[in-house]
Specification:
With 218 residues, the protein is an alpha/beta fold. Bound molecules: the ligand O=C(O)c1cccc(C(=O)CC[C@H]2O[C@@H](n3cnc4c(=O)[nH]cnc43)[C@H](O)[C@@H]2O)c1.
């Protein structure tokens, strides 16, 4: 079994560690930031390794929505990924294209079996976690009001910029995918001194490594 691990940036990937025992069974992809780059880079990687990859572990950092139970440095697993800013940006909410009768894929349920296996791995190593809706945006929420609005509209646990793209591409390639993230900031919070970027990168990488090892030996 070969697992592809995917993260948006080198900082997140570094924390996965280079000296893992099962490294021969792990391929790595730094997708780049945002859904477009992610969709492109992942599609081209899966094409290149056609038939050789059995599952994708997507990990990284995320912002917790103001009404979310997730706190700084919490680990979260995605049940569903939603393209949160795809639609019409009204003052109070994003109007979805489906409301206008247009068929646009804008939400993706992540693989149940792999998600449960990842949850089992986390319990096994004693890491507490939350599960729920993740929201992917092209524009990171820049105010608490915006973050609250998007978070409430989708009952979102946290916000990121790649997850829905990974879920969509994996679905197209019939590959199971699991996504886990560590909370680095409150979505909408602009004051960088309240962010925990480096610690969150470290924690998400280490957690993803432990989960991947568990999946490979399961
Ligand atoms: O505003 C800044 O100065 C700034 C500096 C470094 C990084 C950022 C990011 O927004 C990182 C985006 C990156 O991390 C994920 N992420 C983390 N928190 C959030 C968030 O609140 N909203 C959306 N994405 C977030 C995301 O997946 C990207 O890969 C800003």
């Amino acid at each position: 079994m070969t697992i592809l691990i995917a993260a948006a940036t080198d900082l997140e990937m570094q924390a996965f560690g280079a000296d893992r025992d099962a490294v021969a069974y792990v391929l790595r992809l730094i997708t780049g930031i945002g859904p477009m780059e992610t969709a492109l880079s992942l599609t081209s990687m899966l094409h290149q390794y056609s038939g050789q990859i059995s599952a994708v572990v997507n990990f990284g950092i995320a912002g917790a929505y103001p009404d979310s139970p997730a706190q700084l440095l919490d680990i979260c697993i995605a049940k569903q990924e939603i393209l949160g800013d795809l639609g019409i940006c009204l003052p109070e909410r994003i109007e979805r294209f489906a409301e206008r009768g247009l068929a646009v894929r804008d939400s993706f349920i992540l693989d149940d079996r792999l998600r449960k296996a990842a949850a089992q791995a986390l319990r096994h190593i004693g890491i507490t976690f939350l599960q729920g809706n993740f929201v992917t945006v092209s524009s990171s929420s820049g105010t608490t009001e915006r973050a609250q609005q998007i978070g409430r509209q989708y009952q979102g646990l946290c916000e990121n910029m790649e997850g829905a793209a990974v879920a969509m591409v994996c679905e197209a390639f019939h590959l199971p995918c699991v996504e886990l993230r560590c909370i680095s900031n409150r979505a909408g919070e602009r004051d960088r001194k309240n962010w925990r970027l480096r610690e969150a990168c470290l924690r998400t990488g280490q957690t993803a490594a432990a989960v991947t090892e568990f999946l490979l030996t399961d």
